[in-house]
Specification:
single chain; mainly alpha; 6 helices
Length: 154
């Protein structure tokens, strides 16, 4: 398409960003599939708080994904910027969860396997969020022709 049609400006940005977005969506699906495959490894230890944290991260990521897809379809850079700024929520939950799981593992060595699985799930959620923010940056790039770095879209 690039060679035969020689797209310029916005058309070329759409093609390039579309390829990047497709790659990010593929990675998101891969992380989700890995979570699903490894859920069976999760043992039923008394770790309600970390499990709730992972569920919270997954919910936030799900909402972010819905919003960024809408943003892409509408080419809405304000919504893309909102999604981009949501990544701090998941990062904060992730860091707190790591600290809590370290404490749990140090106090109860029998919980190491379960905690490791929980860390895997949390890390996958955090990486999903990173790919969603990449998509937000690409939506901004399509519309504005420059990389979004957290500044106002005006």
């Amino acid at each position: 398409m690039i060679v035969s049609r020689q797209p310029l400006a916005n058309d070329l940005r759409n093609i390039i960003a579309g390829q990047r977005i497709a790659a990010d969506l593929e990675r998101i699906v891969n992380y989700a599939a890995n979570i699903a495959k490894h859920l069976i490894d999760l043992r039923h230890d008394n770790l309600k708080e970390p499990v709730d944290s992972i569920l919270c991260m997954a919910r936030i990521a799900g909402h972010m994904l819905e919003d960024i897809i809408d943003s892409y379809l509408e080419l809405n850079i304000e919504k893309a910027a909102e999604v981009w700024h949501c990544d701090d929520k998941i990062d904060t939950i992730f860091l707190k969860m790591i600290d809590k799981l370290r404490i749990v593992m140090s106090k109860n060595p029998n919980s190491v396997n379960t905690c490791t699985s929980l860390l895997f799930f949390a890390r996958a959620c955090e990486r999903i969020e990173d790919h969603i923010t990449n998509i937000a940056e690409n939506v901004y790039y399509i519309v504005m022709g420059q990389i979004y770095r957290g500044e106002s879209s005006k």
